[in-house]
């Protein structure tokens, strides 16, 4: 299958990154180079693009897609949470812009063998990095019931987490749960019929939760945001696209912590910690896809773009 990814909020990302032709820009979640192509086309021959992804299929596809662009390119296999180490390895101190497009790519969702989608029958995998030893099958078959419940409740915000975890624990006593459709059937059996008829696919929240656990996504995001902000040159911008409330909450908390870093007790008349904000918001409310984009690309429906600028 050809690696493809329809970039969400494409025009908005390029506009808000305010690309300087001779600048250095990082796409920490390169994927199929959807946004990256636009960034590279806006850079001159002496601009520098750094693309990071943990999926070797993504890097191969991105290399081919970006081949005809003229800027300097450094494509690195790794996790964006290691951004500081990656930039150090390239002898880069500061950059002019960073994009983090979170979540799972269209290619990963649409490739059955990757096991991300509840719409395809496939082995339970869900690894963004094929060398990651932890798979979805390991979680559903080997984690204890209470831990599965907590993962589904916390990462999936699923109201029926206890029932789903209980059904998973019961099913695996008879045989290991090996495929996505086996798990979907178990989830459906745990959710009341009335609830299954409303809202999104009944397996959506549980699959999201397991995927987040497999890839430790929230940890990597929390770790990356500070380093990404620190790596920006004055006037440089960080753009982050989130797809669910857990990610968006982490981004909002990071922005607030950088806008209001003072650690003095609330009743103190004068700040003595001397911690000052080093960013400003470029976007107030998050930017979301319009109806036309959602109709063309339904996965853009839940996307939120937030942008900050380094002072």
Provide a quick synopsis of the model.
This protein has helices spanning 10-17, 34-42, 56-65, 83-89, 106-110, 136-142, 145-156, 161-171, 180-190, 193-196, 204-215, 217-231, 245-259, 291-296, and strands at residues 24-27, 48-53, 72-77, 95-101, 232-242, 279-281, 304-310.
> What percentage of residues falls in helices of 4 or more residues?
40-55%
The order of strands across the largest sheet is: 3-2-1-4-5-7-6
Mean pLDDT comes to 94
Q: Profile the largest sheet.
A: 7 strands, mixed
Would you tell me the structural class of the helices and strands?
Answer: alpha/beta
Total DSSP helices: 14
Q: Secondary-structure element order, as H and E?
A: HEHEHEHEHHHHHHHHEHEHE
* Overall spatial form: globular
Radius of gyration: 21 Å
Classify the beta-strand content into a percent band: 5-15%
Low-pLDDT parts are: none
Total E-strand runs: 7
Q: State the separation between the terminal residues, measured CA to CA.
A: 44 Å
What does this structure look like?
The chain has 311 residues and is α/β, with parallel strands linked by helices. It contains 14 helices and seven strands. It has helices spanning 10-17, 34-42, 56-65, 83-89, 106-110, 136-142, 145-156, 161-171, 180-190, 193-196, 204-215, 217-231, 245-259, 291-296, and strands at residues 24-27, 48-53, 72-77, 95-101, 232-242, 279-281, 304-310. Strands 3-2-1-4-5-7-6 form a seven-stranded mixed sheet, sandwiched between helices. Strand 1 (24-27), helix 2 and strand 2 form a beta-alpha-beta unit. The radius of gyration is 21 Å and the shape is globular. The chain starts with 9 loop residues before the first helix and ends with a strand. The model has no long low-confidence stretch (mean pLDDT 94).
């Amino acid at each position: 299958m050809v690696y493809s990814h329809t970039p969400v909020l494409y025009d908005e990302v390029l506009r808000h990154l305010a690309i300087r032709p001779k600048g250095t820009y990082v796409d920490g979640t390169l994927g199929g180079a959807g946004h990256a192509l636009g960034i590279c086309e806006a850079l001159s021959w002496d601009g520098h693009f750094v693309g990071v992804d943990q999926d070797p299929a993504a890097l191969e596809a991105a290399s081919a897609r970006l081949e005809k662009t003229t800027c300097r390119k450094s494509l690195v296999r790794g996790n964006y949470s290691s951004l500081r180490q990656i930039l150090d390895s390239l002898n880069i101190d500061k950059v002019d812009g960073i994009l983090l497009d979170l979540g799972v790519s269209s290619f990963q969702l649409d490739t059955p063998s990757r096991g991300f989608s509840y719409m395809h029958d496939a082995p339970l995998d869900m690894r963004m990095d094929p060398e990651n030893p932890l798979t979805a099958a390991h979680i559903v078959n080997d984690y204890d019931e209470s831990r599965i419940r907590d993962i589904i409740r916390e990462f999936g915000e699923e109201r029926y987490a206890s029932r789903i975890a209980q059904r998973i624990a019961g099913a695996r006593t008879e045989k290991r749960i090996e495929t996505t459709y086996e798990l979907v059937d178990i989830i459906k059996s745990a959710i009341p019929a009335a609830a299954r008829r409303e809202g999104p696919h009944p397996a959506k929240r549980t699959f999201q939760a397991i995927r987040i656990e497999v890839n430790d996504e929230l940890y990597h995001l929390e770790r990356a945001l500070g380093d990404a902000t620190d790596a920006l040159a004055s006037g440089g911008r960080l753009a982050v696209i989130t797809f669910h409330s857990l990610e968006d909450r982490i981004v909002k908390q990071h922005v607030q912590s950088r806008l209001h870093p003072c650690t003095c007790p609330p009743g103190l008349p004068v700040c003595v910690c001397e911690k000052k904000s080093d960013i400003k918001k470029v976007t107030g409310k998050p930017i979301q896809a319009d109806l036309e984009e959602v109709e063309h690309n339904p996965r853009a429906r839940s996307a939120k773009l937030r942008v900050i600028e380094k002072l």
